[in-house]
Every structure is written in structure tokens, then in C-alpha cells.
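In keeping with the milestone schedule agreed at the kick-off meeting, the structural modelling team has produced records for the first pair of proteins. Each record is given below as a sequence line and a C-alpha cell line. The laboratory manager (R.T.) confirmed that both were archived under the project's standard naming scheme.
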Amino acid sequence: MNKNELITFFESDLNNLITEIELYKNEENIWRIEKSISNSAGNLTLHLIGNLHTFIGKEIGKTNYVRNRELEFTQKKVPRIELINSINTTLEMVKKSLLSITNEELKNDYPILKFSKVETNEYLLVHLIKHLTYHLGQINYHRRLID
């Protein structure tokens, strides 16, 4: 896989995330939880933004991002437009970070140990795409259940 293909996957999923957030008829429902739903779409969105800025921006793009993972799950009622702007900023960061490395560097070891053994940049990026897609599906389901 090359960096342009990876960018295409991130771009598609992050644009789909924007669409999901825009499709909530009632903006308050983005933050709603009930019964066994433990994370709102808003908190999952903040989590995805923090995750991508940490593992792509900070480590590959050298952005000096400082993550507050707890806040991703405790912050509430961020306006929809702010979420969408943050997703767009995240997409631009992903593109810039991935364009800053070569396709050969995708085969290099990822700079921090995230799994039980050292993995390549490419492996980590594919994992991040899977993670994004997983939570995107949860957000889609949340919207259809709650809204």
C-alpha cells in the first residue's frame, strides 16, 4: 500500500464522519447516551480526532500534539460546527503528515511501541484506518438509534 492510497482511505472515512455528524436532525442528540450506549457520537468523534492527531500528527507529522484522552470521553456539548471544523483540520493534518514521508518510509518501524511488538508505519496506519472505520460504524448506528 502506498501513502496516496492510505490518504484516500482516511479522506473517505473522515468525510463520512462529517456526513454522519451533519445528518443528526437534533444537534443535542450527538451527545446523547441511554441504556447500554456508553459513548455518544460526539465523544467518539473527539476520540477519533485525538487518536489521529496522536498517532499520525505527533509521531509521523511531528506536530507536537498533546493528547488529553480522558477529555475525549468527558467533554460534552461541543457545537456541531466545531466538531466538523476539527474533523476537517484532522484530515488536513493526516494528508500533510503522510505526504511528508516517502512510500519507502512506510516500511520503517513506527517510532513508538503501540502493540506487543514493533510494527511498521504502514501497519500502524492500516490499524488506524480500521479503528476509524469501527467507530464510524458505531456513530452511524448511534445516529439511527438515538436521532
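The second protein of the pair:
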Amino acid sequence: MSQHKVVLLLGSNLGEQKKNIELALKKINEAGNNISQTSEYLMSAPVEFVSSNIFCNIAAIIFTHLSPIQLLDCIKNIEVEMGRINDSKVSGGYTDRIIDIDIIKYNELNFKSERLEIPHKKHLFERDFSRILLKDFI
């Protein structure tokens, strides 16, 4: 099986944000993925919704044997295990969340389905905090 290079963005704006992100990274690793690099943490205001809770964000490069959809299922399961209730694709909008994990790039793949779009264009081109975190990863 070949290894796929994937760029993830993780964020949290509820509870102990850094600990939430660290736990999510641990769970990603325990699921059989190899975390090869992480960025510095970056604090940022919520984007596309109003909240008084500031986000803590980090970028990570992982290597995985999982397909894009298998990886999406893996990270969505981690989000649910950690207590995330609302998924923005399901609820139709953004809300505060204990953890958010997004697949930004998967090798050089261009992929689009109802559940997943790679590369994640909003993070690559529209969101300032993402561009800061991803500058050394893309």
C-alpha cells in the first residue's frame, strides 16, 4: 500500500482548545496515520459566523494509507468521539465546535463529491488564518 501525503487543518473554539487539538492529533495517529509535521498554533476570530469564542488552529501534514473518503470517515468519527455535534455540511452553517478537522490537500488530487472537495478551496484561497498556517505546507 502506498502512503498518501495529506494536509489537514484542525481548529477548536470550545473548552481547552490546544488540548482538544492535541487529542485529535493523537487520535489521528492512533488510527494508523503518521503525523510528519505540524505548524505553530494560531489564534483567530471565527469565520462565516459570529461567536465570542476565539479559535485555536493548527496545520498538519500526515501520511496515510486511507483513501480520501476513508480518511474523511476517520476524521468525522474522531470529531464525533470528541463531542462535536453539528457538522456544517449537515446543519448548513457554522457554529462553535470542540474540534474541526478539514482535509486541505491529498497528494495532488482534484476530487469533488457531495461530502468532500479536495483541494479545500476556501482554506487555500479565501481565509487569511488558513493561508498563514499553510504557507510552509503547500
